[in-house]
Design brief:
The protein is an alpha+beta fold and 135 residues long. The protein has one domain. The protein has two helices and four strands. It has a four-stranded antiparallel β-sheet with strand order 1-2-3-4. The N and C termini lie far apart (93 Å). The mean pLDDT is 83.
Length: 135
């Protein structure tokens, strides 16, 4: 009698099926973790680029002040290359009356530096990054 067809030694494949299901579940969990890790890294990159841009905009605003309103080009250096900054200036004037005497007073200019989110390579194009002298 041959031992190949011995009913006591016949395998049913239950262990193989359980192992296959275990590998499938592990791969699904691994793919989910990889997706979460990529989202976290993308968020960290966006935060780093924003931080670099804010630091450079503040340095430009501190060093240039209201002279930035003269129309010179303002650029900042980002990981994706040099980006042009939009400069917006607003002169504030007020009339003050004290004891019946009216005087026109010029308040300090507001200087606003603006970089589009698309230039930063992040987020929504309708939400620019703004650094202003009047926060």
């Amino acid at each position: 009698m041959s031992t190949c067809f011995d009913p006591r030694r016949r395998q049913r494949g239950d262990m193989m099926l359980e192992a296959l299901v275990g590998v499938l579940i592990t791969s699904i969990i691994g793919a989910g973790l990889a997706h979460v890790a990529s989202r976290v890294l993308s968020g960290q990159r966006d935060a780093k680029v924003e931080n670099i841009a804010v630091e450079q905009l503040r340095a430009q605003l501190e060093s240039g002040g209201i002279s930035l309103c003269d129309g010179g080009a303002v650029t900042i250096r980002l990981p994706g290359g040099d980006k042009t900054v939009d400069v917006d200036c607003e002169v504030a004037a007020a009339n003050i009356t004290v004891a019946g005497i009216a005087r026109a007073v010029d308040a300090p200019q507001r200087v606003e530096l603006r970089v589009a989110a698309a230039d930063l390579g992040i987020g929504d194009e309708n939400a620019p990054l703004i650094v202003s002298s009047r926060q």
